[in-house]
Amino acid sequence: MSLITGYPAGAQVAQNDAQHMQQITPRAGAPSSFADLTEQLQPAVVNIATRQRVTVNNNPFSGTPFAELFGNRGRPTTREAQSLGSGFIVSADGYVVTNNHVIAAEGHAEVEEITVSTPDGTEYPAELVGRDAASDLAVLKISRDKPFPFVKFGDSSQARVGDWVIAIGNPFGLGGTVTAGIISAVYRNTGSAGAYDRYIQTDASINRGNSGGPLFDMQGNVIGINNAIFSPSGGSVGIGFAIPAETASPIVKKLMAGEEIKRGYLGVLIGPVSEDMAEALDIPENHGEFIQSVTANGPADKAGIQPGDVVMKVDGKDVTPDQTLSFLVANIEPGTRVPVQVIRDGKRQTLNISVGERPSEEELAQQTFDPDSDDLGPPQAPSSGQGVLEDALGLHVIPLNPQITRQLGVSSDTQGVVITAVDPSSDAGQKGLQRGDILLTANYQRLTSVEDLENVVKTAQDQDREAVLLRVQRRGRPAQFVPIRLKESD
Length: 490
Prior knowledge:
Number of strands: 29
Shape: globular
CATH architecture of the largest domain: Beta Barrel
Low-confidence stretches: 1-26, 63-67, 374-386
EC number: 3.4.21.107
Structural class: alpha+beta
CATH topology of the largest domain: Thrombin, subunit H
Enzyme class: hydrolase
Active site: 101 (charge relay system), 136 (charge relay system), 211 (charge relay system)
Radius of gyration: 25 Å
Subcellular location: Periplasm
Distance between the termini: 48 Å
Domain PDZ: 255-328, 397-475
CATH class of the largest domain: Mainly Beta
Helix content: 10-25%
Number of domains: 3
């Protein structure tokens, strides 16, 4: 490492000797003020609110043999819930883009109404045109007699680390908030895996409620859709993530046209090629992905892909950290036959695979559940609309099925829900609950679905209880009861 002193603050390049220094000049687009650009763009950025109807089961005997006997007591009631987020208008006739999680129902609820508010304070009832949970995108439609101001998608593939960007949105319900920063990284993988773990990272302040809002370049084009934050505290620490426009734009066009979103699928569990693995296999580091396992009778299995193979190319495109196997395959039309280059036993070979159709996210989670994984899931979404279990218990769970039962090594007749992630700052995390634990009962009510646990938690909240009693089954240990204190709502 060398220390350079005595030169101007701009970066410089030496050419032969110090007398031939060439100063690198900044790219155009670093204004002394963002006011003019903001004035042009802000009319197309909107606030989005939902009104939801939550069903609360007030029967104290729900989930027990006494439920029917005392069925007239504690009839189910409903309560209202709300969520807030951001969005932006992409056409003069009122199509609005946002995140799916902004308009999705919370837990055991139904969305009754979606309202879009423009910067002038006018509220419009919105129609849900289409949604896609896998990419976390949704399209709404609002209407009026005259055209709406709108913005366009730009080319995020040209974005560079260090480029200026501005974000406009509705953080904490404070509409029309503008923040500025730079692109901190392009095609950032957050560790959540999946086809769309591929974000623009920015240090422009992103907070809860910014979800679904636009990230603009200095030409006023939308190059990203603000989606998530990394935050130990729950607020902005200068690490925000946006869905790149090159990913979002084709999906938005299909949703606007009413087309079904179909994605390619191989049926493999993959892992990165580490430095040690690259050395052992004598292949370049940061190229290819390692096949850990293959789903029986899936497209990869039928084509001859084997555990231990390293996939180097798909349809002629290199597999890299910026262009993962999941991303490449997801963007191939199901039914297409493509060449896949693999390294097996130190030799390269090409297999032709007929790409299948990607299952739902819940089906994938159940297929690929790894009880020994330390992965705690995707980064925290900055919308205020989290699920009741994440908010109250700091837990994420999925239904127990025969495949997961076998993976956990428990009896096939075990009923419950299995923990996939734990907030380490929650009481559940402090008391040692962990990924792979099975929740058998909650407040003595047997659990057969995620909704059963949600209902117990909601009932406890409605009765002003501060904790719930969980019966927890861990592999190789007898089940035990653990009281878990509910997190205080914000």
